[in-house]
Protein: Hemolymph juvenile hormone binding protein
Amino acid sequence: MLMIYPKLMLTLLVLVVRADISDGPLPEYVKQCSRSDPQLKSCLIDSLHHLRPYLRAGIPEIELPTVEPFHMDELKLSLTGGPNGYTVRLRDLLVRGASNYTVEDIKLGSDFEAIIRMPALILDAQYTSSGVLIILPASGNGTFHARFGNARALVRGSVSTHPRNGKTYLNVDNLDVQLGVKDVNMRVRKIYNNNRILTEATNLFLRENGQEVLKVMEPQLKKKLSTLFAGIVNQIVRNVPVETFLRP
Structure:
């Protein structure tokens, strides 16, 4: 299980929150819900789906940049053991596909949970490796591409409420995302000065060990994405009251 971005159930819910706090007309990206609606959960899910094109384009009025692509700095992976173990560094990662989500279920409260599906997450990065791979010295650099197909994200966390000026504001206290990926496809290009043998050996290793490589990525992805997404959410919810997105 891996963790990722897909942009993220609570982030999306909070964006629905961002109605105009000056009591003017609602922004076009907001689909407002009513507390008294017997189908409130369905309304909230529809509101999150309503946001998809705006997340892809970005929402300048709430200082939200486009989520396509999503940028990460780097991942360091130790893929084989021993003194000459095969290690990989991925830099300048760009992740695409997170905004093409479907919310299957949500459970809201001080503890929240959501299930989100994405057809695919696409990752591109600069690739550097060192050590020995399948008896071959494998130190070099190039580009890395991965496609994580049929992704299912389980988002869990907790929020606290903080009254201020007669309104209720939220704070995300912790956030965790786990991603199950059914189909994994990884490959490298233009590595080792275009050494064909090493390139083919590396791609063979990635084809046969895709799920294992994904598991090695998980702890770093979990930490980086949880910290980053919680920061994005809190930047919004600390300034936007709950009352602006959920009418009586």
Summary: The helical segments are 9-17, 40-50, 52-57, 196-208, 210-237. The two ends are 39 Å apart (CA to CA). The chain has a mean pLDDT of 77.
